[in-house]
Amino acid sequence: MTMHRYRSHTCGALRESDIGKEVRLSGWCHRIRDHGGVLFIDLRDHYGLTQVVADPDSPAFKMAETLRAEWVVRIDGKLRKRPAGTENADLPTGQVEVYITEIEVLGAAGELPMPVFGEQEYPEDIRLKYRFLDLRREHLHNNIMLRGSIIDSLRTRMKAGGFFEFQTPILTASSPEGARDYLVPSRIHPGKFYALPQAPQQFKQLIMVAGFDRYFQIAPCFRDEDARADRSPGEFYQLDLEMSFVTQQDVFDAVEPVIRGVFEEFGKGKKVTPKFPMIPYADALRKYGSDKPDLRNPIEMQDVSDAFRGSGFKIFAKILETRGNAVWAIPAPTGGNRAFADRMNSWAQGEGQPGLGYIFWREGEEGGAGPLAKNIGPERTKQIADQLGLKVGDACFFVAGKPKDFVKFAGSARTKVGEELKLIAQDRFDLCWIVDFPMFEWSDEEKKIDFSHNPFSMPNMGVEEFLALDPADTDKLLSINAFQYDIVCNGTELSSGAIRNHRPEVMEKAFGLAGYGKDVLEAKFGGMLNAFRLGAPPHGGIAPGIDRIVMLLAGEENLREVVLFPMNQKAEDLLMSAPSDVTPKQLKELHISLNLPKK
Question: What is the mean pLDDT of residues 46-61?
Answer without folding.
Answer: 96
